[in-house]
Amino acid sequence: SVAYSPQCDRIACAHSLSFSKDGENGFCENFYEFSEPTSSFETNYETSASERKSNIKLASQKLDGVIILPNQVLSFNEIVGSRTFKNGYRTATIIESGKFTQGLGGGVCQVSTTLYVAALLSGFEIAEYRAHSLPVSYVPLSLDAAVSEKIDLKIKNPYPTPVLIKTEADGKILRISVYCENPSPNLKVKLRSKMLKELEATMTDKDDTDGVLLETETEKIIIPAHSGYLSESYMDYIDQSGAVVSTIKIRTDRYLPQNGERIIRSESETNMLKLNTVSVKV
Questions:
Q1: At what angle do helices 50-63 and 108-121 cross, to 10 degrees?
Q2: What is the per-residue pLDDT for 11?
Q3: If you average pLDDT over every residue of the chain, what do you get?
């Protein structure tokens, strides 16, 4: 079963939800307006290109107001829809085959990642997730959640009452809040990331056969090299005194290094350039 969304035919109205709590039937009207969210997580996208910002706003709007009934599973891809021009998505930076490139729906993974962390903080069951092949800048290592047409994020409501998802995207900050029963009101949940090992990237040198270098240059980096990482993430439960009462390891991930490329001037080209310079002075 999947979550109900205002964008789908299966509509669950947040203003007239009937559900069972503590064995009694109850009525909850505008419950998210009169209570603090159980969890809220935000990521920054202020410096993103306009196309990426547009994709983030569109995907977050699809999630806004979604209600997940008890024991139901939210499929991110089903709610957000296929990333196509017809559905309003634009071309922006994505990760594909271990490289940054351009593709439809770039930025949507930031929405799935923000939802993923908010769900973890609320005690959701993560039914399906996939890490990116490369590290991303908007969240610590091992706390990301990639999505594509073939990769989904699925989260399950483990509580006996409905859960509401609210989103805000103002062009700078993406915030996703979860409204649900607080399973541990006397405990705070803190997520943390640990880098276990840095995976070294390589730099490939290529001769300047196309005349890229200026006369004053001996080399130029075309593709910067970035390290990869082996990392883990953890969930700490903290009591009111600030003490960690328990810790759960969430996952372990391996992010690929991004190998670089550098254009260099060969020794023969350098000598020839020096010879030409001397000839001109004479």
A1: 40
A2: 27
A3: 85
